[in-house]
Design goal:
Protein name: Phosphohydrolase
Number of strands: 26
Number of helices: 10
Organism: Thermococcus celericrescens
Oligomer: single chain
Strand order of the largest sheet: 3-2-1-12-13-14
Number of domains: 2
InterPro entries: Calcineurin-like_PHP, CNP_phosphodiesterase-III, Metallo-depent_PP-like
CATH superfamily of the largest domain: Metallo-dependent phosphatases
Radius of gyration: 24 Å
CATH class of the largest domain: Alpha Beta
GO molecular function, one term: hydrolase activity
CATH topology of the largest domain: Purple Acid Phosphatase, chain A, domain 2
Domain Calcineurin-like phosphoesterase: 2-185, 275-434
Length: 503
């Protein structure tokens, strides 16, 4: 068993931002505890100034355990990254422990709050993960968060390439990702990886009246990972995650439902719209796949003008299965909001065969940035509770989880709160369609599947234009990505699920 103390965002300074008594309280708790080592995930200082680094160097020496320290965005202000190396240590590095390794990476951008694991650092991280691939436990530590966090207000300050980093860590079977940055303690499980966000150890800036805290990480020999959020008040919240075994599943029983999921057809008369690809996809859907329902996750047209809506309506009227279409940000440009209602109608809840499809409108006028809003979040929570005895599928345009090969700028500005609403409500499946690339992961108990572009040339998918085929069996979801031109496919995700129809 390995025990790690995870602290973050100390913001050491002579100014009022720093709460020295909270720091000493937590450090004394750590020193008395049975910890193998300590990880500090950044914002050691408040402004990256020399006098702050001098004091931070003294304060960090109070910790009487092996210590790994990662730079945060506040530390690299005022060219503070030079002082970090002088007073604290290397910006990137490796710490080995019994059966495991911590690989820490500098995710900061000088003088910006946003983060990035850029080209050279990304390749360095990939190389280290390959070098230590035989380690039973692989921990990656950085300052910035990988997935949206609740209770942070407007979702920003993420890793620009969060989708690529998330995909890299999952492919290399990383056990744990630790980070800080947003001053909110939170724990999620994504597939077999635990994402551990620490709150702030000793900064006055806490969210929604919270208090200072740190996280206790316990890694068991059988692969279980426990994370306890411990506040200075003594309150504790503990979460435990067990590894998924086995990872290969066999369907039990007959298929219950088949869904075709598509997005970003962007019907238009521009050269980027691939009319023949869409025609072929519609023919494949009707003649070969024969789904129970077709979901379109938005950007059905390239611009909200009547000529494009007329063309889009002609295409999608040919689909024989029942359809549910939610608008994307392109769909409601110009007169698009009125035209969407005229041609496709107000998205309504669909119930079939014990399944309930809950449409969510996230698009806004004239901007790719989406929002569900506090009223919308309460509506989702209410519907998930109301349809708890059904298999609930939530459908919206904007991606909630960052997508590989896409610059993440927080396209859904309240993604953290929406993600919490969906996972706490235990939605059985979430379908999104923004970003031009297909991606699928399971967060807590909820699979989240993003569709790539079905017929728009300006996409980000090496597999080409595609749509997703989702088959649901008792206790299992299987997701394939289907190449829109040739109909060839690849497995995108397969998960055991709990809820209705579990054998």
């Amino acid at each position: 068993m390995i025990r790690i103390a995870h602290i973050s965002d100390t913001h050491i300074t002579s100014e009022s931002a720093y709460k020295g008594y909270a720091y000493d309280l937590i450090v004394n708790d750590v020193n008395r505890g049975d910890f193998d080592f300590v990880i500090h995930t950044g914002d050691v200082t408040n402004q990256g100034l020399r006098e702050e680094y001098e004091r931070a160097s003294y304060e960090l020496r109070k910790i009487k355990k092996p210590l790994v320290v990662i730079p945060g965005n506040h530390d690299v202000r005022n060219v503070g990254y030079k002082l970090f190396e002088k007073f604290i240590g290397p910006l990137n590095g490796v710490y080995e422990f019994r059966d495991g390794v911590v690989i820490w990476v500098d995710s900061t951008i000088p003088d910006l709050s946003d983060g990035r694991v850029g080209g050279h650092k990304f390749r360095w991280l990939k190389s280290r993960l390959e070098e230590y691939s035989e380690k039973k436990f692989k921990i990656v530590a950085a300052h910035h968060h990988l997935v949206p966090l609740p209770d942070t207000g407007r979702e920003r300050n993420v890793l620009y390439n969060a989708g690529d980093v998330l995909d890299l860590l999952l492919r290399h079977e990383v056990s744990l990702y630790t980070c800080g940055h947003k001053h909110v303690p939170n724990v999620y499980r994504i597939e077999d990886m635990v994402i551990d966000n620490a709150g702030c150890t000793s900064c006055r800036k806490t969210r929604k009246g919270d208090v200072n805290s740190y996280n206790i990480i316990t890694i068991h020999d059988d692969g279980r990972i426990e994370v306890t959020i411990k506040r200075v008040t003594g309150d504790e919240v503990r979460k435990e995650h067990r590894p998924i075994k086995p990872k290969i599943f066999v369907p039990r029983g007959e298929r219950l439902l088949r869904i075709v999921q598509m997005s970003e057809s962007n019907v238009s008369d521009r050269m980027y719209f691939r009319r023949k690809v869409l025609e072929n996809a519609v023919r494949t859907i009707n003649e070969k796949l024969r789904p129970d329902i077709v979901i379109h996750n938005g950007d059905i047209v390239d611009m909200g003008i009547e000529r494009y809506y007329e063309k889009a309506y002609e295409f999608y009227e040919k689909i024989k299965a029942e359809k549910l279409v939610v608008p994307g940000h392109n769909d409601i440009t110009y007169l698009g909001y009125d035209l969407f209602l005229e041609y496709f109608g107000e998205p309504e809840i669909v119930e079939m065969k014990g399944f309930t499809f809950l449409p969510v409108i996230s698009a806004q006028y004239e901007t790719p940035i989406g929002v569900v809003g506090r009223i919308g979040q309460r509506k989702i929570a209410r519907h998930l509770e109301e349809y708890r005895e059904s298999f609930t599928v939530v459908v919206l345009h904007h991606n909630i989880i960052p997508i590989p090969r896409s610059r993440e700028v927080g396209f859904l500005e309240d993604a953290g709160d929406v993600l919490r609403t969906l996972t706490w409500g235990e939605a059985n499946l979430v379908l999104t369609g923004h970003g031009g690339n297909s991606f699928a992961v399971k967060v807590e108990k909820t699979p989240i599947v993003n569709a790539g572009s079905i017929s728009w040339e300006l996409h980000r998918n090496p597999f080409g234009n595609s749509f997703n085929l989702i088959d649901i069996y008792p206790g299992m979801i299987v997701v394939f990505e289907v190449q829109a031109t040739w109909g060839s496919g690849r497995l995108l995700g397969i998960w055991k699920i709990k809820g209705p129809f579990t054998p």
